[in-house]
Protein 1
Amino acid sequence: MPKIGMEDFRRKTLIAATLKTIQEKGTIDIRVSDIAGHANVSSALAHHYFGSKSQLIQAALRHLLSDFRLAVLKELKNATTPQEKVISLIDACLADDQFSDEIVSAWLIFYAYSQNSMEARKLLQVYVRRLQSNLRYYLRPLCGHKTEEAAEVVGSLIDGIFIRQALRIEKADANYARTLVKECIQPYLARN
Amino acid sequence: MPKIGMEDFRRKTLIAATLKTIQEKGTIDIRVSDIAGHANVSSALAHHYFGSKSQLIQAALRHLLSDFRLAVLKELKNATTPQEKVISLIDACLADDQFSDEIVSAWLIFYAYSQNSMEARKLLQVYVRRLQSNLRYYLRPLCGHKTEEAAEVVGSLIDGIFIRQALRIEKADANYARTLVKECIQPYLARN
Amino acid sequence: MPKIGMEDFRRKTLIAATLKTIQEKGTIDIRVSDIAGHANVSSALAHHYFGSKSQLIQAALRHLLSDFRLAVLKELKNATTPQEKVISLIDACLADDQFSDEIVSAWLIFYAYSQNSMEARKLLQVYVRRLQSNLRYYLRPLCGHKTEEAAEVVGSLIDGIFIRQALRIEKADANYARTLVKECIQPYLARN
Amino acid sequence: MPKIGMEDFRRKTLIAATLKTIQEKGTIDIRVSDIAGHANVSSALAHHYFGSKSQLIQAALRHLLSDFRLAVLKELKNATTPQEKVISLIDACLADDQFSDEIVSAWLIFYAYSQNSMEARKLLQVYVRRLQSNLRYYLRPLCGHKTEEAAEVVGSLIDGIFIRQALRIEKADANYARTLVKECIQPYLARN
DNA sequence: CATGAATGAGTTTTCATTCAT
DNA sequence: TATGAATGAAAACTCATTCAT
């Protein structure tokens, strides 16, 4: 009685379990058996579907990035003017749910992991470049020759807020973070 | 080779070797034998002097932080006015030698590690808070009620530039980075 | 080879192998790999099932004690009068198979080990107290106010015979040992 | 300035430190460095004087035995009749200071060690045989054909009391122990 | 005489991975 | 499809022992 669509279900479950385990342990240095435990399957099954631990982790990273990408796209859809688009990007990056301890932690861990894994590095670079390119595209009509600078500031500021978040004990205020970034770019818009 | 006073020398060498190994491998997940190899000693010696791998890594983190702290203090000494002090802080954080691939990589890796190790987390928190407190202190006469915001922006921006640096392939321009931050806070100063 | 239900079999085999290794080496200071060798499995498997070397040794000790306990209970079943019960206890403690070099050696080693391991100490204390309590219970109707003394003598004598056995080269005579103890308590019975 | 008689002093100190360490750790499985620490010297010195760890432990065992032998001889000197001699032997074996936790523990540990070390086994066998021979010698005029049995009972009882002592938590009563043994052999004397 | 320095040789422990069922 | 069973390979850690000074 082989269940139809089991493969798909198992892959999804295992990826979710991987992210959960990474967040729980606070490191990429986790055991396959722990992941499998979270997914309520044997660790042999994880190998069956993903071939190896590192491929499973790759898949989890890819999932995190694609999830984020979808959130950004969704947010962008509701915006029309460049101003709105920029605001949308900031809101998407610093959205309440992206700002949860778990997500922040996972991002940081993957960033560090990218120092180690060329594969991860490439994936993250694609994401950073795409976001940066979006930012520049929507900032250009607003900032003119300051565009490059403004994009760099916004992008870095967002990442910086993220990384700091990882160190804090107190609950972060996503709303304050968004405001901070928006205020910060005002001068670049004004100068145009 | 048994000359007395070796202990101090070995400890320093081993700490340096640890940082080098972390940077080389791009992860905290390194072998004691690799560290020892870089220090040209047996791995048993590393255990002899530090007790365990994690204690050696702690020591390396502590060293990185204290090195950074000394650089900051040195830079601050040459500044007198609040403006100069703030500039000094930015310059120290984004100094050419702090901006090397190795250092950037080590910082990022330790940031991620802090998700895992309470000890590391505390050490990094102390550093972040101290820097932030310095920033606020010198920004206050310049920014008034915008101080909190300005300090947050500067601090986060610096961290963000750092983290992004870790993803880049092209050589970073430390000078451009410093200028970026300095320009970015101009509006906060002007508004006072 | 992966047949289900192996776990129980392996645990038993590994415990037996542990006792055998202890007896062979004459010390508790044995290698997991030697134990595993006797059980024809990898040392990793020993860790898989028992977690650590000391837990495996604990389990072996527990097994030895429980085996002994069962032998005592079995012997007691065939006795009805207090006299018979006391004889049974002595016979059980100094039974031919308990008196083999391997068992004697293991007991002595565990006794010494109990100086080191609180866990082992507690287990052995329970056994000693239970046996002593049994002895007193059945001696009381026979010895009256001399019960305490008689129980102490029998218990100590048995242990002493055991410990001496460990030092001998010549094969011990279990039968002679049993007679010795039985004769020794006669006076305590008579005095009642 | 080589100090005269240093060698002798160091050997004594190291042997004492060895016994102390064995008692403290409750096992023969101790570190040379711990012994050296107790003697306030470097572990290299222990090797200098004893060649190896096992030779140092041998020496400590030899010392324990010879100390005990001296105590027995001293006690025997004050006795004249066979009765007194037997009493002396019992008193010497169960003397207050031989009955201390440390001594009891050391004896037990050495007994177990003798399962492992042929050297230790031989030393202990010599001691047991000598004591047994003494016992028989003085018991013969008192017990006649029961001598063998009586000697076995006394010897084993003493060892048994010792081994049980090692398991107890409550402080033992050496006096009670001596009385117990003395009462126990009365019947053997009477029967003669 | 004495030791700080150093290490080789082991031993435990961990885990991804394989495989028969 | 799924897993219990098993292990090889690697890594941390320990410690007796050696040696130059």
Note: The first helix of chain A runs from residue 6 to 25.
Protein 2
Amino acid sequence: MSSPGRPRRATIRDVALEAGVSRGTVSRVLNGEPYVSAQARAAIEAAVAKVGYVPNTAARNLALQRAQAVGFIVHEPHELFLEDPNIGAILLGANRVLSGADQQMVSLVIDSERDSRRVARYLSGGFVDGAVVVSARQNDSLLGAIGRLSIPATLVGRPPSEVRVPWVGIDNRGAACAITEHLVGTGRRRIGMIAAALDRDSGADRLAGFRDALGDRFDERLVVARPLYEYTAGRTAMEELLAREPDVDGVFAASDAVAAGALDALRAAGRRVPEDVGVVGFDDSSWAQRTHPQLTTVHQPARLLGERAAESVLAQLRGEAPEPVGTLLETDVVLRGSA
Amino acid sequence: MSSPGRPRRATIRDVALEAGVSRGTVSRVLNGEPYVSAQARAAIEAAVAKVGYVPNTAARNLALQRAQAVGFIVHEPHELFLEDPNIGAILLGANRVLSGADQQMVSLVIDSERDSRRVARYLSGGFVDGAVVVSARQNDSLLGAIGRLSIPATLVGRPPSEVRVPWVGIDNRGAACAITEHLVGTGRRRIGMIAAALDRDSGADRLAGFRDALGDRFDERLVVARPLYEYTAGRTAMEELLAREPDVDGVFAASDAVAAGALDALRAAGRRVPEDVGVVGFDDSSWAQRTHPQLTTVHQPARLLGERAAESVLAQLRGEAPEPVGTLLETDVVLRGSA
DNA sequence: CTACGTTCTGTGAACGGTCACAGAACTCCC
DNA sequence: GGGAGTTCTGTGACCGTTCACAGAACGTAG
């Protein structure tokens, strides 16, 4: 629009002039309203084609006070955004639902505080009617902005407790319990866990689920913790666990990346998987199918998370009570070769 | 904005009223213009804070005839979008540049003809001043729309020949030649290729580069082609190649996913990599570091592609001649364990 | 004291649509 | 032929900004 010399876009007035009718009638035809003569309708359609008219949605939205668009805001550092296939699936799920509701999904990546402010400004500009927010952080200025603007929003993942916003997530604890039970079911007797990210609810909940599954048989000495969900964390933690408890015959790794590291540590130590040691992961990320053997893991319904979050935003848009409650979605245990 | 009962947003008029000045003066303060008394400025700033004013960018853009936003349009089927780490990197590169120019990047995913139309409508609405388009297809209705609207746009990847739009891409042919030469340099004598996607320029160019590198020693019987860049394609193609030419000692796979399949087929056939057979891939995708051994492959400067495309759009926005020419970026051969 | 430049402010029009309202044209029936 | 109802059309106001212009207030020089 700012490019100099670009010819002016045709407006509804040009169409009206060309068709020999008024703006009002053109607007009626464009919006499919009744009470327009066949003659006028035909003339307007011809005129639209002739002058190459395309509606200016910005003007339309200004008049209608809505944007017909929903933001999809990803707040992740670069590495994770690239690494994590779940985000892509969430995005596509949200896109599917919003597309069905004829809403344009507009996705915005935040990777700095500056981005965060610009996005807040963007949201405030009436460009979007609502937002799906993925992995907001603690003390995220964006959440504050959303609250202030009272834009309908739904988070994917559990929000910091002080923020009252609807959210959808998975039951990390239940899923961790289920996959640990699978490990138990394959006859393992000495089951360890490589826990990670205990400072986040996902990490803590996965450990809690592991404990739930083992009950009395839970043994603290079989748990090794690491700060992040990383391949190398899994590798070193597995080495540590093997050194400490050589008779371990089952391992629940807090994520697939961690499990991949554990697998390589086991291979290096001459243990066979799954014959000597059963290994399970969490996430069903791209790691899971690229290890040897492939990982038995917990599948997150990532696409469904995106769909549900989008539906929640649409419901809020329809004026339905934005119950600020969380929804937990079910997960599946996916059986592959590693346990 | 459509949610019923939501309190009306404060406008510039409310601020003016509160501060006891006119709209014009408020606008001047908001835009940092000179010729405003310190007194008025202070009163306005206080009023802004008091009424909680946030500018309505839609109205602002309508008046200014610009959006201060650039679209990032990804036209890929779901699977590829999730699979291909290059797209994420391109996105982040573009985001970096646009963010620096204080433009909001708005990314839009197209996965159906319906999406395509909606995105075209979105672009026409004055929401964005320009667009970066990733992997547009042949006969893509979107490219037509962009042409019609004469929106500044730059493609990532080579466009269909009949469309005159600036683009940036990589030299698939040169890179394929370089990595094949690496294979030759490791002393391989019977080098095969698993080609793929020969109907796209990337696939055809990679085969051409392979041929360039081998010259006289090119042997058609050592080439197996498959329609898509897929793991299973690599696996079956490698089996076919081994059956046909058991003495093959080097393989150039047209993508990392294909190479991963080939690797597994070689393992199943009892060949050691790289001792018996050297394998190289293309893309430097996440597959490359997760195979055993890790892949020697061609690294695409994906982030740079995104940056360049964004810069090109910004240049067009500044009114610089949108030379409809392509730019080829350099690629690197990354040496890992597989050859 | 007047004329003039500088600094500051308010106003009306514009951006491109939608909508409510008024009224015209047409049909139908008495 | 006139009144009532239905169908169709045009107009002015409005959405929330920016901008050009007119003009006010003030200081300074002649």
Note: Confidence is low (pLDDT under 50) at residues 1-6 of chain B.
